Structure of Acetate kinase:
Amino acid sequence: MSRTRVLVLNSGSSSLKYQLLDMRDSRRLAVGLVERIGEQTPRLKHTCVTSGDTREQNGPIADHDAALKAVAEELARDGVGLDSPKLAAIGHRVVHGGLFFTEPTVVDDDVLTEIERLVPVAPLHNPANLTGIRTAMALRPDLPQVAVFDTAFHTTMPESAARYAIDPKLADRFRIRRYGFHGTSHAYVSRETAKLLGRTPEDVNVIVLHLGNGASASAVRGGKCVDTSMGLTPLEGLVMGTRSGDLDPAVIFHLQRVGGMSMDEIDTLLNKGSGLFGLCGDNDMREIRRRIDEGDAQAELAFDIYIHRLKKYIGAYYAVLGWVDAVVFTAGVGENASAVREAAVAGLEGLGLAVDGELNAVRCDRPRLVSPADARVAVAVVPTDEELEIATQTYALVGKNG
Ligand code: ADP
């Protein structure tokens, strides 16, 4: 087909990240970011990958409509504008697809309504994602708009993993269950891991550790997710940059009843003021490692808590899967922090897990093994690429439909 380009949009509440890809060879043509939309000092940073040119705009950008128009202008300057007949579709990241969306979906009015119905369980993300979709639809009404959901990969979880131990009727009434997030990354990375092992996804069991500022683990059996660490919202699970991850829910009652905090304050505390940041004042693993090297005990404790939680999830998902072919690290921390990888599997030789010091120290942006050659379970680093995955799923769907 001559329509071979896909524009990927990831709309946040005040940002718009985008990439234009040519799907004949999955090559990036342009990438960029609009930040602080509607604020005092908006900024658009655009890179034409083919020429290597980077341009910045600091003029007013009042809303997502203005942001997308500014992006369209930048793309047109590079000769890859949104009016090009080569554009096949626009793929949108949508954070919450609930149980309804198990696959990428071409957006129509019913799809918009359903994404809107999920706003109460994703109050920060879905409204921003919807704004991005509506803006793109207005700009190119003739073009297929495809929603790719962060939750979709996890809809294969069995009820035993997806349900909380509360009254199912109450849970269903308020749509309370474990949905999981980062699904696009877990799908991509688990598939790439199978490739790295020279096997098919159906043939391997993998524990994926997506460790970015947000962090989640998943247990993937034969290409299908059977458990993941994030839940109703991205707050559950691992220790993250600013999120607490797992804690006794009674901590919330205690903070309200004894600490006198409001629900909004507790929400902000647990989502934005906890995790590594709450523990030591820094959420960047580079800074934490630097402080540890200087003998900072607070940073060391934060690191230890982070690793302890990670190790517990590796053990838990090992048990969930029964047999593990690979443990794979991805995202900013997972791909770059060799100390985290080393500490996370330290002492797990009994489970067949170990890293080779030299391999683990190699810095490279390709998928690679970091375990010793004779290891029973592979330990791997596989760089994630959520935009490529969104583009691939979008292109596959549009290709199938037309
Ligand atoms: P997100 O997409 O969730 O914002 P990323 O996957 O981009 O996050 O990861 C960002 C995090 O990766 C940073 O906060 C930092 O902790 C970590 N990181 C990035 N580079 C390095 C590095 N060289 N060493 C250690 N940690 C790193």
Residues 204 and 222 are 5 Å apart (CA to CA). The longest strand covers residues 27-35. Residues 5-149 form a domain with the Nucleotidyltransferase; domain 5 fold (CATH 3.30.420.40).
